[in-house]
Amino acid sequence: MSAEDKTFYPPVIPDIEDWPIYRLSEDRKNFVEEVDQFTVNRLLKIHGNKIGDTIAKTIYQERIRIKEEPWKVDPPNERLFWKRIRRKLLKSGLDKGEEEVRKTNEEILRQIVHRYSEEIVGAFRIKTFLFARRFLTLFFTRLLNTAAGRNWGRIFGSKYSLMDRLIVTGYIEEVRSLMKKGVVIVAPTHFSNLDSILIGYAMDTFMGLPSFSYGAGLNLYNTGYTAYFMNRLGAYRVDRRKKNVVYLETLKAMSNLSIQRGVNSLFFPGGTRSRSGALETRLKLGLLGTVVEAQRALFEQGKDTKVFVVPLVLGYHFVLEAKFLIEQHLRETGQERYIRSQDESGSPWQILKFIWQLFSKANEITLSFGRPMDVLGNPVDAEGRSMDARGRELDIKGFFMLDGVVNRDLQRESEYTKMVAEKIVDRYFRDNTVLTSHLVAYAAFEILKQQNMRLDIYGVLRLPEDDYVFPKDVLYDVVDQLKAGLTEMESRGEIRLSPEIGLNIEELVADGISRLGNFHVGKPLRFNKKDEIVSDSFKVLYYYHNRLENYGLNKKIRWRKMEEVPEPAE
User: Fold this and answer.
1) How far apart are CA 31 and CA 27, in angstroms?
2) 417 near 282, Cβ under 8 Å?
């Protein structure tokens, strides 16, 4: 049921003009109007006579945002727009009848929703897409050949391609088949700002899939060149500063209605990059809920179109933003005050350095496509048939019916959303591919904790790295035990192992250390001049250790070698 080769699959839909995202873009004006009407109706139904209060709260939140978090990408008339809206709302309550106030509030609501929908809904231009595809292929190929030989004279070589570094595994054939059976939603883990570009490139170049609609943070549009391409490559804009209910409902309406129109979508259900380095265990249910609602709406319309969810797990030997992310995680826990470091991971220079390290060190990135499921979390086969726990076919339409009729029940659909979220998380853990760097980092940090059992995690992280040496025999022994435990788990379908995990213990540890975080100035693990294993940053080591957290692997370790190691100095 898995695939791992260098086959470049032919396009599932050869003509780009037949891609759902292109057809939606060509009908953008009507789609925006549809989003407007859907959102207004939803808000009026939810808030009823209190819609004026909802609008007032939205205006208040937006005025604070403009004052405290202005961005270059914000429209020049932003302040003026909200000033006029506020004035209009205040006038609506002066000496007017209830019906007139209702009409005025609805008009104001429409103005706000339309402003949001125009901002959110993107476009897709074929010429821009083809240029981006050619540019990325050329750029990555040239950089890879240069970095692989560490020789700028190879910049025009073509021996290597990015696909030599992207290892795509899992249910590839099934995903390709489902593209013709219904609407596919890819739900990846999220570790780096590079995730979107690498996923998009792999799905287009390797898997032959049409472009997906995907969310891009509005902050990425602050740069002119970035904004130009984002505006034309099918991205919809997400402004995480906006927390008001009107904006969130508009965003969810866009997702819901685009799925109903057959547009395949990619979004990170974790909501943001994993700060701790661990796999997501709790997902945001907002956009995920629109997937369930869209499926019910399709059934209501008398269509048999099914919506499929495909979990995707990304695996890096090192993450560009690891140092920033783990420090942010530790601050957010409230257990320690850390100096705020700046996240420079989005700068072109940092990204270029990251890619250079990726290519020159022969590090791979794994993309593990999990088993596709329906919107209730049931596994589906290549034909899109839902299966229960005993392998019997299910008709999920019945789960959206009452008295033989498909009906809208938001409470019921909320429970379905929780169900599919739990199944996605389960697949994340099962389809996670363990790299040598993950295993060695986990083992090393567990040794550090074991030698400092009297300290909590924050105490361990405050220990000085300078004089600490990881006992090599203990590390080999712990890695060997963990390898045995992981191999058993893989046989039960609970996790995946990269081929390098099969190396003998000395080679496995050496491989993991050589690849682990080798982009960072302060390396989480390295061999010093005495061939001892040391760390320059326990915090960054902790970040990579967390990749295998929540598997209960610490229970598989017997500390039989630890007695031979002297207690660390106080």
Assistant:
1) 6
2) no
Cα–Cα distance between 102 and 88 in angstroms, integer?
13
Q: Which residue's entry shows tokens 């074929």?
A: 126
Reference 322, options 523, 37, 41; nearest CA is: 523
Q: Nearest-CA neighbor of 529 among 463, 451, 461, 469?
A: 469
Question: Can you read off the two tokens belonging to residue 276?
Answer: 């701790």
pLDDT digits (tens, 9 = 90+) for 97-111: 788 888 999 999 999
Using only C-alpha atoms, what is the Rg of the chain?
26
Would you call 418 helix, strand, or coil by DSSP? Answer: helix
Task: Annotate 177-234 with DSSP letters as a single string.
Answer: HHTTTEEEEEEE----TTHHHHHHHHHHHTT-PPPPEEEEEGGGGGSHHHHHHHTTBT
Cβ–Cβ contacts within 10 Å for residue 13, how many?
15
pLDDT at 214: 87
Check residue 227 and give its pLDDT.
61
Burial class (CB within 10 angstroms; exposed 0-12, middle 13-18, buried 19+) of 294: buried
- 478-491 tens-digit pLDDT: 999 999 999 999 99
Task: Return d(Cα 63, Cα 86) in angstroms, integer.
Answer: 10
Distances (CA, A) of 415 to 410, 412, 418, 422, 469: 9, 5, 5, 11, 50
d(CA 471, CA 524): 15
Q: Within 10 A of 469 (CB to CB), how many other CB atoms are there?
A: 13
- What is the rounded CA–CA span in Å between residue 70 and residue 241? 10
Q: How far is the C-alpha of 407 from the C-alpha of 420, rounded, in Å? A: 20
Residue 160 has a pLDDT of: 53
Q: What is the pLDDT of residues 335-358, one digit of tens each?
A: 544 444 444 445 555 555 555 555
Q: Are 233 and 25 in contact (CB under 8 A)?
A: no
Gap between the Cα atoms of 141 and 517, Å rounded: 23
d(CA 554, CA 446): 7
Choose the weakest-confidence range: 59-73, 161-175, 224-238: 224-238
Share of the chain above pLDDT 70, in %: 84
Structure token pair of residue 543: 């970040």
- Average pLDDT in the chain: 87
Alpha carbon distances (Å) from 519 to 189, 221, 435, 476: 21, 27, 16, 24
pLDDT tens digit sequence for 43-100: 999 998 899 999 999 999 999 999 999 988 888 999 999 999 999 998 876 667 788 8
Element housing 472 (H / E): helix 472-491
Which residues pair with residue 215 across a beta bridge?
Answer: 236
For 236, phi and psi rounded to 5 degrees?
Answer: -105, 145
How many Å apart are CA 188 and CA 483, to the nearest integer? 26
d(CA 275, CA 548): 14
SS (H, E, C) 345-410: CCCHHHHHHHHHHHHHCCCCEEEEECCCECCCCCEECCCCCEECCCCCEECHHHHHEECCEECCCH
Q: How many residues does the chain have?
A: 570
For position 155, what pLDDT does the model report?
Answer: 43
Q: Give the DSSP letter of residue 56.
A: H
